[in-house]
Amino acid sequence: MPVLAADPSTRSDLESLQGVWVSVAGPRQARLLIAGRRFAFEFVGGDIYMGTFDILSGRMDMYIEEGPREHVGRYSRCIYRLEGGILQWCPGRPGSDRRPTAFPDVNDPRHLSLVFRRERRR
To answer: What number of H helices and E strands is found in the chain?
Structure first.
């Protein structure tokens, strides 16, 4: 897995991303768990993805180790924005080197774009 060069904002983003996130806007309900540089992503009632990731200045490269067979062993080039406890995330198609260049509307059926908030502890 290529390692993206670290910069100060990456370190603080990595720390801020740690924990469990639940989707609050987007076409599908999802949960995202970040632990170190590992992730688990679940479409509620659907597929589960697990793997590792690197981040750099709003870009996230997610390597899929477990999930639907056609996506295992591939990267998803994503973009993200983290502001005030809200995570906006948009992945590229697994296996493509194309990364989204902007966040589409969460209601655009042509793209997966989700907004997460940190899950409240019970």
So the answer is: 1, 8
Strand, coil or helix: 12: helix
Residues 74-109: pLDDT tens digits?
999 999 999 988 999 999 999 999 999 999 999 888
3-class SS shares of the chain: helix, strand, coil, % to 5: 10, 45, 45
Phi, psi of 34 (to 5 degrees): -115, 125
* pTM (predicted TM-score): 0.85
DSSP state letter for 96: -
Helix (H, G, I), strand (E, B) or coil at 103: coil
The CATH code for residues 8-118 is 2.40.128
Tell me the residue ranges of DSSP E strands in the chain: 19-25, 30-35, 38-43, 48-56, 59-66, 75-83, 86-91, 114-118
Q: Which residues pair with 93 in a beta bridge?
A: none
pLDDT in tens, 29-57: 999 999 999 999 999 999 999 999 999 98
Q: How many CA atoms lie within 13 A of 94 on its CB side?
A: 16
- Domain ranges for the chain: 8-118
